[in-house]
Amino acid sequence: MAKGKSSMTGRRRRVTFSFESMNAKDVILMGDFNNWNPKTHPMKNDGKGAWKKTVMLFPDRYEYRFLVDGEWRNDHNGNLCPNDFGSYNNFIVVSTNSGS
């Protein structure tokens, strides 16, 4: 989902995404911050079912989903917005303050 960024002002912030699954073999973080590219942000499993990936993002609003073993999944952050495919994307807002 493309979106026009008016400006990328402020410093980038470290944002850690996580997905819980004991049975997943492959989890990929995809979103408008990486042009929904499945090769950009593969996630790592801690061996206990917690998949994590930390990325540096400028302050803005970002949509994302997880590709889990070839199927789209959302996390449980509660921030959802409709996408062009009849389902929903998660979104986060990275603030200019010290938190995300």
Annotation keywords:
single chain; 100 residues; mainly beta; Immunoglobulin-like; five-stranded antiparallel β-sheet; three-stranded antiparallel β-sheet; globular; disordered N terminus
Describe the model:
This protein has 100 residues and is mostly beta strands. It has a single domain, classed as Immunoglobulins (Immunoglobulin-like, Sandwich), CATH 2.60.40. It has strands spanning 13-20, 27-31, 44-45, 50-57, 60-68, 71-73, 80-82, 88-94. Strands 2, 5, 6, 7 and 8 form a 5-stranded antiparallel sheet that branches. The two termini are 21 Å apart. Residues 1-6 have low confidence and may be disordered.
SSE layout and pairings?
Elements: E1 13-20, E2 27-31, E3 44-45, E4 50-57, E5 60-68, E6 71-73, E7 80-82, E8 88-94
Antiparallel strand pairs: 1-4, 2-5, 3-4, 5-6, 5-8, 7-8
Radius of gyration: 13 Å
Largest β sheet strand count, sense and barrel closure: 5 strands, antiparallel
Total domains: 1
Q: Strand percentage, roughly?
A: over 45%
One letter per element, helices H and strands E, the order comes to: EEEEEEEE
Summarize the structure.
The chain has 100 residues and is an all-beta fold. The chain has strands at 13-20, 27-31, 44-45, 50-57, 60-68, 71-73, 80-82, 88-94.
